[in-house]
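We were asked to recover a plausible sequence for a given structure. The inputs and outputs are reproduced exactly as logged, with field labels preserved.

PROBLEM: sequence recovery
POSITIONS: 385
GIVEN STRUCTURE:
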């Protein structure tokens, strides 16, 4: 099933490295997430936006089984709604737990974080056995966030968008009494429900939700933790002018404000009455790019992962792309600054003709390899040498 897509000699000011993309698996309907099982190197889960999860063999790309189908409870009324995120318990081998983030069919502006238990050998689950852990209401149909993932601390992190429309009209992202526009952090290790980690920054305050870990985000679409260092990377989709990548060392994001809606990237939000000075202590992005069609620009960021796979020249490079403008880049961080920018866009040529478009998500396996999904073609690619 694997097919070589293309090769590219990537030039940077530091080194050149030849990379390729190969198709691992295809035939998916709007794939939006890729997750690896923590206890085996052989299996990946592929999430389709309408509500289906598949298990595939990582090497051959063969579909092993359908994990489950929960499309009966999911709305896709708006383009950014659906089954948007999947997190697999770090203790999956013993508890079979997986977690999903989706928008409710019966209440289209309601987001649910739910837990399911699946068989650890067959990878099949009963969709009827759902435990809703945390739910919150969106104001509109877009900016649903959607990412969920386990940190190195084994807590579950959740990306909640600012509630939608444009310019955060209800100022949710700066409101600590509302989960929207935030990264949430909860402990799901108990037998049921969840608890608040004792070191959550607002755990003991009455004027803030205890689940909030960071805030001031517009619509963080795909975040990740570095497998080697535990560093936290957040890609936040911009409004009209700037897309941004945020970087924090382990624990550094606790209680931090990323500035939206006052700021878009490093800049005052241009709309009158919305933009303002950077809040005290706010985190500035490590990298930003403007809205344009040039090689270093785009329109809607898709966040990725730090490469920790077998290609040594790519070790430590954070890969990310653009959903609307077919682009893929990588950077490294050095002393909190972005360095060694590389443009990998010429690699995005499909054997079916034309560029690989609408990169909806990145993924990573246990060996540190990085994967890319195309929303349009339904293909899953792996970065290779």
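RECOVERED SEQUENCE:
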């Amino acid at each position: 099933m694997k097919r070589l897509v293309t090769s590219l000699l990537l030039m940077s000011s530091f080194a050149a490295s030849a990379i390729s993309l190969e198709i691992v698996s295809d035939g998916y309907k709007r794939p939006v997430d890729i997750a690896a099982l923590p206890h085996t190197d052989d299996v990946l889960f592929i999430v389709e936006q309408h509500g289906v999860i598949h298990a595939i063999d990582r090497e051959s790309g063969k579909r092993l089984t359908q994990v489950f189908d929960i499309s009966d409870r999911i709305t896709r009324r708006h383009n950014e709604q659906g089954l948007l995120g999947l997190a697999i318990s770090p203790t999956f081998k013993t508890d079979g737990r997986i977690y999903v983030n989706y928008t409710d069919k019966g209440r289209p502006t309601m987001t649910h974080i739910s837990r399911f238990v699946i068989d650890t050998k067959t990878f099949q689950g009963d969709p009827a056995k759902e435990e809703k852990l945390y739910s919150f209401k969106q104001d509109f149909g877009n900016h649903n966030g959607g990412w969920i993932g386990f940190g190195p601390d084994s807590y579950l992190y959740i990306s909640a968008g600012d509630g939608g429309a444009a310019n955060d009209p209800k100022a949710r992202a700066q409101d600590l009494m509302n989960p929207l526009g935030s990264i949430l952090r909860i402990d799901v290790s108990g037998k049921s429900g969840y608890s608040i980690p004792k070191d959550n920054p607002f755990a003991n305050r009455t004027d803030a939700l205890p689940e909030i870990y960071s805030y001031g985000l517009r619509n963080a679409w795909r975040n990740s933790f570095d497998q080697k260092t535990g560093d936290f990377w957040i890609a936040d989709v911009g409004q009209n002018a700037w897309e941004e990548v945020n970087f924090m060392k382990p624990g550094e994001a606790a209680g931090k404000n990323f500035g939206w809606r006052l700021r878009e990237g490093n800049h005052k939000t241009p709309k009158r009455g919305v933009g303002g000075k950077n809040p005290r202590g706010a985190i500035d992005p490590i990298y930003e790019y403007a809205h344009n069609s040039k090689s270093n620009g785009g329109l809607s960021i898709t966040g990725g992962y730090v490469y920790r796979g077998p290609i040594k020249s790519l070790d430590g490079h954070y890969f990310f792309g653009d959903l609307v403008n077919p682009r893929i880049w990588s950077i490294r961080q050095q002393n909190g600054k972005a360095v060694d920018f590389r443009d990998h866009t010429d690699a995005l040529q499909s054997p079916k003709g034309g560029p690989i478009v609408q990169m909806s998500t990145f993924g990573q396996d246990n060996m540190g390899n990085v994967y890319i999904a195309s929303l349009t073609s339904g293909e899953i690619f792996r970065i290779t040498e």
